[in-house]
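Figure 3 (text version): structure tokens given as input.
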């Protein structure tokens, strides 16, 4: 199926950020709030009413917030007649239109501003619809505007490609589980948070339209992975190349031996990271085989009632990449699986694996939701690390069972 392209407007297609910045300075300045470049950047991508509320919360402004918002919007509309397109914008939009099933602008700006900008630049002829986050309960970085646009255009999130320039917009697209192409301003390109985007470009002029077509989201994702893959070459030049059989063990599907290992494993460690790249590792356990193999590309991990911190699930909402390491007690081999995860409801878990229904009434388990992991890499890890650690050394285990090697955990922890 052809992709549906969802474009941001300000800062991506048109060079309107200076227009908005000037309008905000003109309106807020007489009220005693003098916005610096850093202050302007902090609210970029927000809806105007959210931006106005942000500054009213932080400054003692004697004015009506609604009036301030209307004055800013009016000032912007007056300046849009001469607004310039960003480099490569018209060519990128035209290329996407040729490959698209549908096209829309999804912006935090009010709808009159969106339509005025598109008409004044001639881009309106390319788009099927416009959507303003002003109409939603929550603005970007909430994914609501993108999800509403996709539903209105008859597209699933997986069929959508979002193009954004601000981190708030990128986060909205990623949270909607869409393919995201980020084109940040030059001053923002070093911001590590943009790593949650599928692909990061310096300019729309760099958009490779050959990736567009029936499988555009996957093609863009593959191009992004190629552009962001860590380079092990300096280390290999220093320490040597891996043996061919070691390099060949990494597969994109679950080998039957890997499936059997997972079916016997009662314990795993799951690594996730949030939108800024801050990492977390979480242990997960259950009866052997508590992680279910759905097919050679998908795993189901039930989530049981626990501490309710939900760090892993919060991370996955904005950055679906996960890394899993499976263990079997007494076995020095481990299995590693890397891929993307999505959160599924309790009802969906039971649709996928009916025999988990018993966990709903077991007070020790209490399955509440789950994760479906789409496998990108799966392979066994050699036993060297666990053997060096003596992790399953029977004498050590017996000694530690009889006498703990450290005192009980303090209640304050």
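Below: residues designed for each position.
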């Amino acid at each position: 199926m052809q992709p549906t392209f969802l474009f941001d407007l300000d800062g991506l297609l048109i060079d309107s950020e200076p227009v908005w910045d000037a309008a905000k300075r003109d309106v807020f300045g007489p009220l005693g709030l003098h916005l610096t470049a850093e202050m302007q950047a902090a609210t970029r991508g927000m809806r105007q009413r959210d931006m106005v509320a942000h500054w009213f919360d932080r400054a003692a402004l004697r004015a009506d917030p609604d009036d301030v918002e209307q004055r800013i919007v009016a000032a912007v509309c007056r300046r849009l007649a001469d607004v310039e397109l960003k480099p490569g914008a018209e060519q990128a939009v035209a290329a996407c239109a040729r490959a698209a099933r549908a096209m829309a602008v999804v912006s935090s700006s009010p709808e009159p501003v969106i339509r005025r900008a598109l008409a004044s630049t001639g881009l309106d002829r390319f788009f099927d619809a416009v959507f303003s986050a002003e109409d939603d309960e929550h603005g970007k970085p909430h994914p609501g505007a993108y999800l509403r646009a996709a539903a209105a255009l008859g597209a699933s999130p997986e069929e959508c490609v979002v193009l954004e320039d601000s981190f708030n917009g990128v986060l909205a697209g990623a949270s909607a589980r869409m393919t995201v192409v980020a084109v940040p301003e030059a001053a923002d390109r070093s911001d590590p948070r943009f790593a949650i985007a599928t692909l990061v470009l310096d300019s729309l002029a760099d958009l490779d339209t050959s990736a567009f077509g029936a499988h555009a989201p996957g093609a863009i994702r593959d191009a992004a992975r190629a552009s962001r893959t860590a380079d092990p070459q300096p280390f290999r030049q220093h320490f040597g190349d891996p043996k061919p059989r070691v390099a060949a063990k990494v597969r994109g599907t679950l080998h039957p031996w890997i499936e059997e290992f997972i079916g016997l494993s009662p314990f795993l460690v799951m690594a996730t990271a949030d939108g800024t790249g801050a990492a977390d590792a979480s242990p997960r356990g259950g009866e052997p085989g508590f992680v279910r193999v759905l097919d050679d590309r998908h795993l189901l991990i039930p989530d049981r009632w626990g501490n309710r911190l939900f760090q892993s699930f919060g991370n996955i909402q904005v950055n679906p990449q996960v890394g899993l390491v499976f263990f079997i007690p007494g076995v020095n081999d481990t299995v590693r699986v890397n891929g993307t995860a999505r959160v599924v409801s309790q009802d969906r878990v039971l649709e996928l694996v009916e025999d988990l229904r018993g966990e709903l009434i077991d007070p020790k388990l209490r399955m509440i939701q789950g994760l479906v992991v789409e496998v990108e890499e799966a392979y066994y890890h050699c036993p060297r690390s666990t053997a060096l650690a003596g992790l399953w050394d029977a004498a050590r285990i017996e000694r530690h069972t009889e006498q703990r090697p450290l005192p009980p955990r303090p209640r304050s922890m």
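The radius of gyration is 25 Å.
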